[in-house]
Write a structure and sequence with these properties.
This protein is α/β, with parallel strands linked by helices and 91 residues long. The protein has helices at residues 6-10, 32-41, 57-65, 78-89; strands spanning 21-24, 48-52, 70-73.
Length: 91
């Protein structure tokens, strides 16, 4: 599934099954990191893969400490994202 924003993701039907999130750090509005924090705060545990064009080691460290599966800097090969999703889903 695809959501236009973090806010629309939070407003989704709670019965919708989500196995993994691929989030951009900068979503415009609530950031991907803010969404990750909010989900953790309410006890939602799901694998998250962050993608970004930013070269910010502080952000990378923050997301990794929060438990993201992968932190990918754009541009990256499609195979790198596929490998991260497989890792997230334990395929």
């Amino acid at each position: 599934m695809e959501y236009a924003s973090a806010e629309s993701f939070l407003g989704r039907d709670p019965e919708t099954s989500i196995d993994c999130l691929v989030l951009d750090i900068d979503l415009g509005g609530m950031s991907g990191i803010e969404l990750q924090r909010r989900l953790k705060g309410v006890g939602v545990r799901m694998p998250i893969i962050f993608i970004t064009a930013l070269e910010d080691t502080r952000l990378q460290t923050e997301t990794e400490h929060a438990g993201c599966i992968a932190y990918l800097r754009k541009p990256f090969a499609g195979s790198v994202l596929i490998d991260a999703v497989k890792k997230a889903l334990r395929l």
